[in-house]
Design brief:
By secondary structure, the chain is an alpha/beta fold. The chain contains 12 helices and 9 strands. The chain has a single domain, classed as Alpha-Beta Complex (Inosine-uridine Nucleoside N-ribohydrolase, Chain A). Helix content is about 40%, strand content about 20%. The two termini are about 20 Å apart.
């Protein structure tokens, strides 16, 4: 089993919740823990605990991480985080250890084998790199949802903490980056929700409520499964087209959050440029709601 840690800003866009379910269910992966980032990380951690209880992994380590961005960017907080989730106040989480310390400890436990999926701003990952330089050589690979590598677009996770993203991309850690170039290719609608709502132990109704809440916020009748696609890349990289490259994060105020790709066979980043849309869509749904 491949040990994996999820670093997430769960509770805002519903795709973090979908990615958590994916990792918990994916054969061949063993979810070692979750660290939360950006804003009220304790609330995000409690929300994660409630979901994990419904997933049958009530004792999974869940650690609230860093609240503020390194770049000083204002926290994106629509206000619907946790709405409709019962049991948040009673949910217990680990508060005796920091997220960077937890990431380091697990990376040493599984030296050279631990993989990390980061699907929020990269604040926790950057702080771990700076505080514990040995972390860089202990993890096998960092997967992330963030950036746009062929499109001239800002992406939320990079924009929310440009300073952290710069540290991570310049760290020489092997990175697989799934950006908007591919995640915008899939759109989930009522057809997908028909399957998702059937999940047992109260997970289906909760997931439907959270999805519909996100749709109301977006004023749409669907959403892109950005984060689950980054999780899918862990177990099915053959569905993606990748280019090996180096990434620079733009720090200019009017361009902050955009990234520049420089193709380099010796680069540390595999940036996804395309994917098998039909098969990725099918497998995502099958993993999350078999």
């Amino acid at each position: 089993m491949r040990p994996v840690i999820l670093d997430t800003d769960i509770g805002t866009d519903v795709d973090d919740l979908l990615a958590l379910i994916f990792l918990a269910k994916a054969p061949g992966l063993h979810l070692e823990g979750v660290t939360t980032v950006h804003g009220d990380t304790l609330l995000r951690a409690r929300l994660t605990r409630v979901v994990c209880q419904k997933l049958g992994i009530p004792d999974l380590p869940i650690v609230p991480g860093i609240k503020e961005s390194r770049s000083g960017h204002q926290i994106f907080w629509p206000g619907q985080e946790g709405c409709g989730i019962r049991g948040l106040e009673e949910a217990s989480v680990e508060t005796s250890i920091s997220a960077p310390q937890f990431l380091l400890d697990r990376s040493k436990r599984y030296a050279g084998k631990l993989e990390v999926l980061a699907i929020g701003p990269l604040t926790n990952i950057a702080e771990t790199i700076l505080t514990f330089p040995e972390f860089k050589s202990c993890i096998k690979r960092l997967y992330l949802m963030g950036g746009a590598y062929w499109k001239d677009l800002r992406e939320h996770n990079i924009e929310m903490d440009v300073a952290a993203a710069t540290i991570v991309f310049e760290s020489d850690i092997p990175i697989t980056a799934i950006g908007l170039d591919v995640t915008l290719k899939i759109w989930w609608t009522e057809k997908h929700l028909e399957r998702l709502r059937t999940l047992p132990d109260g997970l289906g109704p909760m997931l439907e409520d959270q999805i519909r809440g996100w749709w109301r916020f977006l004023k749409t009748q669907g959403n892109h499964p950005h984060d689950p696609l980054a999780a899918l890349a862990i177990v099915h990289p053959e569905l993606f087209s990748f280019t090996t490259c180096e990434i620079t994060v733009n720090k200019d105020k009017d361009q902050a959050g955009k990234v520049t790709r420089r193709d380099n066979p010796s680069g540390n980043v595999l940036a996804a440029s395309d994917l098998n849309v039909a098969e990725a869509d099918r497998l995502l749904l099958n993993y999350i709601a078999p």
